[in-house]
Amino acid sequence: MIPIVLIDDHPLVSDGIGAWLTATGRFTITGTAANLAQARTLLTNLDPLPEIVILDISLEKENGLEFIPELKKISEQRNAPSPGIIVCSMHEDIFLIRQAMDSGAAAYVAKSAGTGEILIAIDTVLAGNTYINPKYETNEQYHAFASLTPREKEIIALRKQSLTNRQIAQRQNISVRTVESHLAHIYAKTGVTSWEELIKL
Question: Domain spans of the chain?
Answer without folding.
Answer: 2-137, 148-200
